[in-house]
Amino acid sequence: MPLSAQAKFLRILQERTFERVGGTTTLNTSARIIAATNQDLMAGIREKRFREDLYYRLNVFPITLPPLKKRLEAIQVLTNYLVRSISTRVGKKVSEISDDTLKQIKSYEWPGNVRELHNVIERAIILSRDSRLTLPPLTASLVEVTPESTTKRLRSIRDLEKEAIEATIRETDGHRRKAAKILGISIRTLQYKLKEYGFLK
Question: What CATH number should be reported for the domain holding residue 112?
Fold first, then answer.
């Protein structure tokens, strides 16, 4: 957030008044603010990127949420919830999670936290052939990031995308609109991907 916007936001918090863009009437607000960040705001204050007065105005009741790798007790609950909700959304009947799969999930570091867990489970459900959740090896966080390893990872993501599209087209018996809905992309994007990966001649 630019410093100029921070000043305006601070004024709203302190005075509980604001004007709409283009308006001239001052309005009152009783809104309560819940703010979240993954940035080091104290470093931002030292580097003059974040206003100190805004920081203390927002920091009334701080809640520190540890990364997913430090909340092992929550991973199984999250996994069960995600499997149920994603399976329902994409129209798959995946309901079983083996002990080995749970052990695999709990032993991974999850640098992308809940969002990464969601994406991994969704990809696995789309590619599933039965009711059991099966995951590929989760070792990306253990690989040193170098230009060469980044290229390899990008290639693997491309391969996974191609595999997901191929599996979804197969599962929907070639129904492209249904496949696009399951994959969460537009029919136009799916057509482009099918051509890009050589599924359309």
Answer: 1.10.8.60
